[in-house]
Predict the 3D structure of the following.
Amino acid sequence: MKLMIKQSSWSGWSEDYKPKEIERKYDVNLNKKYVIDSSTISFMKDGNLVKENREIFSFDIIEINEDNIKIRTYQPFSDGDNGRVNLLSNKKEFTISYGQPLELTTPTMDYGKIFILSLIK
C-alpha cells in the first residue's frame, strides 16, 4: 500500500495564477511523521530579523486498515465543503479510502495550498 500526494496551490489575487504541481508517492507506515511541505518565514522579534522553518502540511498515520488509513495532521485543514474552503475548520483527523481521494486545503483566504491524498497499491 502506498500513499500518493498531489500538491498544488491557489491564489485569489490573480486570475492568471498557474500553480506548480508536485506529485509524490510514500510508503504507508504507522506512527511515522510525514512532512510534505514546509516554508521558511521571516519576521521581526525584539528588533531582530528571525527566520524560522514552518511546516505547512505534516501528518502521522494513526491507523491502517485493509481499505483505508487514518491520518492526524499537525495543523487544521479544510476537507472540502461543497468545493468551499472552511476558514473555521479545526479538523485534524481524516480517513483516506481506496478509490476516494481526499482533498485537503489550508483554511486561508487569499492564497493556500491544496493536497490530494490517494491510496494506491
The first strand starts at residue 2 and ends at 11. Residues 40 and 53 are 4 Å apart (CA to CA). The radius of gyration is 16 Å.
